[in-house]
Amino acid sequence: MKKWSLLALSAALLAGCQTTPEPQQQAEQKRSTSKESPELVSEQPQEPLAPILQPENIIEPPPVDELTPQQEQDIWQRIRRQLTFSVPDNKRVTAQRNFYLKHPDYMNRVAERAAPFMHLIVEEIEKRGLPLELALLPIVESAFDPFAYSHGRAAGVWQFIPGTARHYGLDINWWYDGRRDVYASTHAALDYLTDLNKRFDNWLHALAAYNSGGGRVNSAIRKNARAGKPTDFWSLDLPRETRAYVPKLLALADILRHQDRYQVSWLPIENQPYLTIVETESQIDLALAAEKAGMELAQLHHYNSGYNRWATDPAGPHRLLLPAENAEQLRAWLAVAEQKDLVRWTRHKVKSGESLIVIAKKYHTTPQAIQQANDIRGSLIRAGDYLLIPAASLDLDEYQLSADQRLASTQSKSRGKTKINHTIVSGDTFWDLSRKYNVNLRQLASWNGMAPTDPLRPGKNLVVWLQQDEPAGITRNIHYRVRPGDSLARIAQRFNVTIGDIEKWNQISRSNYLQPGQRLKLVVDVTRVSEDS
């Protein structure tokens, strides 16, 4: 019996020795395995595994939720993650939301327009600590069209009216309209919205006031308070447009916040700066700037839509917004260019009877620009003197986004069967002209790129579109005496004839200068000529 016990104990000890081999034996076993299975060894790391497997050494990519909004690839998502407004579930919001959801193509067009400007807008909103819903406001205001102009005389992506624009530092003159300068108007709009929110301490009231005026919103609040009614936005008696205005913004914010719920994906916009600022320090021809920046003139002018003419304002701003690559090219040229190289200069000999105004009109500039270029303090100039005039480097019709060319494009768009040209005379109003031609007043203003309350300046041409064929007129031969500032184009427009006709009737060429007092033969339809012609 003892013999069997000793044998069992020996077997147990032997088994124990086999399950815990010596280090030398372990190494031999590993070497043996390596020889038998080389394909497995080649897939294993050559360094010891233990340090890599320690938890403190494991490096994993951060979850999506840990990205900051500023790290998002799509700027819509950067905005979405910072939306804070509470959106009520009511009929007014639902109606606006349904409109946007039913028109995805419209939202894609808006996104395309917004793409160059959205990053600079979002950056400025975040810098000021304002609600990111404000980045969606230009969609409501203008669909992100920098050339938008309303019947209420509001212009630009933020739709400033002239008085408010000037109050917040936006200049409006012949050369430049700060309301259409996206950079300048963004700063002004956020200043204005901040002031309104300080006044009302309520963002919905502030937004309503941005649309209809602080006085009107304040009056509506006081009226409800006196009647013992609630004074929240939804309870106020406000204009119809304002009652829909705030729900539009809230609907857009709701759609963006709950994209999955509504199965909507707006056209992505890269969350990177698209435009950068180039300071030119003095007036520059936009065509020259485009050439030196290596881009199309129309593209450059679109990004800098505040400039009304062929060049930046001589008095400033001297700022251009350009894509980074083009900005670098322009900066490189500006570094070696002299100030006189930034515009083309024409030497003009003053003729008898000419004034700074006449000369400025001829070269499509302003008397102030001529005075500045020639160091003239007053307006007195003498016949025989020479003046340096800043002039466009290209024909003016090449500047397609200038105020004149945009107006020409608007007026030439067909709106009816018959087009009539009306030259404004002193005393004309849109109301009188709409009755005279039996057309809608707002349509008449729109056909001419104007608002119904815009002033009508004598000598300016308006187009009128009639839905019926125009009756045959009465043709007469007349003799017209040339006035200071006249050109063949202006005379042709005034009398509804062509420049070619005037050349043919008078045996002259358009390259000839017209002299004040010169008489021209014209064959015109007297039923279509204004009273002052």
UniProtKB/TrEMBL annotation:
One GO cellular component, as annotated: membrane
Segments of skewed composition (Basic and acidic residues): 28-38
One Gene Ontology term from the biological process aspect of the record: peptidoglycan metabolic process
Ranges that cross the membrane: none
SUPFAM superfamilies: LysM domain, Lysozyme-like
Top-level lineage group: Bacteria
Biased composition (Low complexity): 17-27
UniProt xrefs under Pfam families: LysM, SLT
Region of interest (Disordered), ranges: 17-51
Family: Belongs to the transglycosylase Slt family.
Name of the molecule in the record: Lytic transglycosylase
Species name: Pseudidiomarina atlantica
